[in-house]
Q: What sequence folds into this?
């Protein structure tokens, strides 16, 4: 359910965020906010300042999503229906049955089409980030061996793990790649956001903050 997001569509309500040709409406933001609130303990949401910070974080997150989607559009990066269907199947496989999956969507008040659109958005952003940052994310054998020594000890075993234990080796590589991506991502996103005009509907935003 972390893939839930609602950027890119328009409706009858006012826009809240606009980046290039994409926007998030007030209704879409409020719906995403209700989902985000479910991730926090109820007592935290009773604190006005904590609630305000949750609203601000969501605004920033959705703005960033729009920037990424605009960048993906510029580069003609897309995700096929078949890829989305495979991702849907992979998520459903984590649930004991279809009913449990549907119950989870119901608890978050998200329809399946909305959730699927959010999943497509997440896959698209991941593909963009991989495409843009892959040349900066290089994992060397020395880094793998060092990670193993620092986290699992016994330096003499590191080469054996690297050569013979593909699954374990892949886990280490994925962890290192994730850490490196996080380090370069912020600089990259700050650079590309300068390409776009970001509009925030201040009147509607003030209403949200005061509600």
A:
């Amino acid at each position: 359910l972390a893939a839930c997001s609602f950027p890119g569509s328009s409706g009858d309500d006012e826009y809240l965020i606009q980046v290039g040709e994409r926007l998030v409406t007030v209704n879409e933001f409020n719906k995403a906010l209700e989902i985000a609130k479910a991730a926090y303990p109820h007592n935290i949401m009773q604190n006005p300042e904590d609630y305000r910070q949750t609203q601000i974080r969501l605004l920033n997150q959705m703005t960033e999503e729009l920037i990424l989607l605009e960048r993906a559009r510029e580069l003609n990066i897309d995700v096929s229906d078949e890829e989305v269907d495979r991702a849907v199947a992979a998520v459903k496989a984590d649930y004991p049955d279809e009913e449990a999956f549907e119950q989870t969507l119901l608890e978050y008040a998200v329809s399946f089409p909305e959730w699927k659109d959010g999943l497509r958005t997440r896959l698209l952003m991941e593909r963009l980030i991989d495409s843009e940052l892959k040349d900066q994310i290089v994992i060397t054998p020395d880094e793998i061996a060092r990670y193993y020594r620092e986290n699992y000890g016994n330096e003499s075993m590191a080469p054996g793990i690297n050569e013979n234990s593909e699954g374990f080796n892949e886990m280490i590589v994925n962890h290192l790649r994730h850490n490196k991506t996080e380090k370069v991502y912020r600089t990259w996103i700050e650079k590309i956001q300068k390409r776009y005009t970001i509009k925030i509907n201040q009147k509607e935003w003030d209403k949200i903050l005061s509600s």
